[in-house]
Design a protein that fits this description.
Largest sheet: 5 strands, parallel
Helix content: 40-55%
Strand content: 5-15%
CATH superfamily of the largest domain: P-loop containing nucleotide triphosphate hydrolases
CATH topology of the largest domain: Rossmann fold
CATH architecture of the largest domain: 3-Layer(aba) Sandwich
Order of helices and strands: HEHHEEEHEHEHEHHHHHHHHH
Shape: elongated
Structural class: alpha/beta
């Protein structure tokens, strides 16, 4: 593992970095698709690895990178032996844990691998908001320095969504005229934000949300085994391990259960309880709690709107959630109203955070608008288990 203490833009706090995660759980189909292309000799130069945030996209990119680099000579022998030796096709992307490529990639010292990500701003003491063209231009030096051995080279972009326009155009030129024996792995949480020309020059590997069983295994591997119900955590995180780690570290399951308890009062919410929630988020040093609460309110609204639209309640992420959804969204019309509120409150919350509006007022306003919205559309209170 790298000893550099500088924060890394591509790492979830409280979890191992994807380069240190050797096993990828729940994404066998994507791995198989890449292996099939490799074995058939149809290895595309650009791969767009997509899916919800936190489901293992970066872990897959690092597994592919190690697999490709370990299969090429670099002064330490290849993974699959000399070309003249008949070898069975690889069945997985695994490489031996004692392979030199494993050690070099973990230490960020593999000369045939370039990692393009948001850089650390030493002057402002924080990570840059975007991947800048200055970072992308370093690729030119990478290809100049690493071309002598004639082996394979790999570029990981994590995340491609974070490139500014100039950086994206610089990468596009590379995708249009890729250097020989080069594979570019683009991690993307929102591929719709990328230039269409970038998307068209890549083959997509789509990763899926994890099931509760896969989530529990992934969290255990990451050293973040949840104290609560893994099925509830999988629901609340939408199958994202990265989000599940964040929720587990911040007490997200308890926080969501508290919100569901509060929302059982809709309409006619307990104002004193709502004010107490808002005040707790406004205390000094509680920025993480504020962000968590806003995010959980948005999650509640999204789950509520979806449950009403499909007329089917999802597995519960908190006790009593299913009955509450049935009462608050008893019709398609109600579901659309909640969906609109989810969108508008999310936009208002992001604007309020950007201009540093009073946190307590922000949270209380969200709860009261939900209360007002519920009044004309909620079914009689006897439908829930209050």
């Amino acid at each position: 593992m790298s000893d550099d203490p500088t924060p890394e833009a591509d790492r979830v706090e409280g979890a191992p970095h994807p380069r240190d995660t050797l096993r990828l759980i729940g994404q066998e189909a994507a791995e198989r698709a890449f292996l099939d292309a490799y074995i058939a000799g149809r290895l595309h130069h650009g791969w767009l690895i997509t899916g919800p945030r936190g489901v293992g996209k970066a872990t897959l990119a690092w597994r592919i990178a190690r697999f490709l680099l370990a299969g090429e000579p670099a002064g330490d022998g290849g993974l699959f032996g000399a070309p003249s030796e008949p070898q069975a096709p690889p069945a997985t992307l695994d490489i031996p844990e004692d392979h030199p490529v494993m050690r070099r990639t973990a230490a960020l010292s593999e000369g045939r691998l370039f990692l393009l990500r948001r850089a650390w701003d030493a002057d402002k003491k924080r990570l840059k908001a975007q991947i800048t063209v200055d970072e992308a231009r370093k690729l030119k030096g990478f290809f100049g320095l690493s071309s002598a051995d004639g082996g394979r080279r790999v570029v990981i972009v994590d995340a491609a969504d974070e490139m500014n326009v100039s950086a994206a155009n610089a990468l596009l030129k590379l995708l249009e005229e890729p250097p020989a024996r080069t594979t570019l792995l683009l991690v993307s949480h929102q591929p719709s934000r990328l230039l269409p020309t970038i998307r068209s020059r890549c083959r997509e590997l789509r990763l899926q949300p994890l099931s509760p069983e896969q989530m529990e295994a992934a969290l255990t591997q990451a050293g973040c085994a949840p104290d609560g119900d893994p099925a509830a955590l999988a629901e609340l995180s939408a199958g994202s391990v990265g989000e599940a780690v964040r929720l587990a570290n911040l007490g997200g399951l308890d926080g969501y259960a508290g919100l569901v308890g509060l929302f059982h009062g809709l309409p006619g919410v307990d104002r004193a309880r709502a004010i107490a929630l808002a005040d707790a988020c406004a205390q000094r040093g509680q920025e993480e709690r504020l962000d968590l609460t806003i995010g959980l309110i948005e999650t509640f609204l999204a789950r509520l709107a979806r449950a009403g639209a499909i007329r089917q309640t999802p597995p519960e992420a908190a006790p009593g959630e299913a009955r509450l959804f049935a009462r608050l969204a008893p019709s398609d019309h109600a579901a659309r109203i909640w969906a609109d509120l989810h969108q508008s409150l999310g936009s208002e919350a992001r604007h309020a955070r950007a201009v540093n509006l009073d946190p307590a007022a922000l949270v209380l306003d969200m709860v009261l608008k939900m209360d007002t919205t519920a009044a004309p559309i909620a079914a009689p209170r006897g439908m829930d288990d209050r």
